[in-house]
Amino acid sequence: MKIGFVGFGNMASAMADGWIAAGVAASDMCACAGRYDALVERCEARGMVACHDAAEVVAASDIVVAAVKPYMIEKVFAPLKDALAKKVVLSVAWTWDSAKWEQVLPGVAHISTVPNTPVSVGEGVIACEKASTLSDEQSAVVLDLLGKLGAVVELDTSLLFVGGTVGGCAPAFVAMAIEALGDAAVKHGIPRADAYRIVSQMVLGTAKLQLATGQHPAAMKDAVCSPGGATIKGVVALEDAGMRSALVKAIDATLQ
């Protein structure tokens, strides 16, 4: 299975890194991007093939990852319609759902997704539109491939970019929380490297616990809060500071 990237920015390179870590042969992947010299360096560092343009990527690939800026989609892909006839287009372009792709590439197999950067370490979440033009066989191959990058969540079209926003933008919010908790630990004497290790492992462990048990987050919070204890005092401080409202407003802002 040959994978090609049209566009090789942060998200595309994160996906490539995740697939390589999962055992996909780097030599079976190629990419094109605006600056060829810089692309060559990035591809060679991974063992991938650098291509000069999108047509070269399409010719060399079975699955074509559409990772250019949304405003470039039609200009880049419309001329390649015939060349894409027997390929699969895997879109990671923001706001480009199945209906939009069908206008540009009618009759071509395409599926729209919104991954996040933790796919680079196999711990991503990939929002995947239920509506696609893939055959059952193609869908099985693509979902298996995406599964190597993390959790795949299939969503209705109306919810695709809501799920993509929560999964794709919130890593920045979580990173801010990690930084702030690390600062708090440093304030009280813990060296910064140790502080970040403690906080990041705590976030990882808490997430794994929720996924493994299916517990409601409120129940997990209550399990740590002893009556009159330190944790409930911290929870009240967060409530007073408007933590919940701030996070909801952050998602609202990204969706505007």
UniProtKB/TrEMBL annotation:
Enzymatic class: oxidoreductase
Catalytic activity from the UniProt record: L-proline + NAD(+) = (S)-1-pyrroline-5-carboxylate + NADH + 2 H(+); L-proline + NADP(+) = (S)-1-pyrroline-5-carboxylate + NADPH + 2 H(+)
Domain Pyrroline-5-carboxylate reductase catalytic N-terminal: 2-93
SUPFAM superfamilies: 6-phosphogluconate dehydrogenase C-terminal domain-like, NAD(P)-binding Rossmann-fold domains
Positions of NADP(+) binding: 67-70
Single biological process term from Gene Ontology: L-proline biosynthetic process
A GO CC term assigned to this protein in UniProt: cytoplasm
Localization terms from the record: Cytoplasm
Keywords, ordered alphabetically: Amino-acid biosynthesis, Cytoplasm, NADP, Oxidoreductase, Proline biosynthesis
InterPro entries per UniProt: 6-PGluconate_DH-like_C_sf (IPR008927), NAD(P)-bd_dom_sf (IPR036291), P5C_Rdtase_cat_N (IPR028939), P5CR_dimer (IPR029036), Pyrroline-COOH_reductase (IPR000304)
Primary subcellular site in the record, as a coarse category: cytoplasm
Gene3D superfamilies associated with the record: NAD(P)-binding Rossmann-like Domain (3.40.50.720), ProC C-terminal domain-like (1.10.3730.10)
Pathway(s) this gene product operates in, as recorded in its UniProt entry: Amino-acid biosynthesis; L-proline biosynthesis; L-proline from L-glutamate 5-semialdehyde: step 1/1
Start and end residues of each Pyrroline-5-carboxylate reductase dimerisation domain: 165-255
Its EC number(s): 1.5.1.2
Record-level Gene Ontology MF annotations: pyrroline-5-carboxylate reductase activity
Family label: Belongs to the pyrroline-5-carboxylate reductase family.
Function text: Catalyzes the reduction of 1-pyrroline-5-carboxylate (PCA) to L-proline.
PANTHER family linked to this entry: PYRROLINE-5-CARBOXYLATE REDUCTASE (PTHR11645), PYRROLINE-5-CARBOXYLATE REDUCTASE 3 (PTHR11645:SF0)
Protein name: Pyrroline-5-carboxylate reductase
Lineage, opening ranks: Bacteria, Bacillati, Actinomycetota, Coriobacteriia, Coriobacteriales
Name of the encoding gene: proC
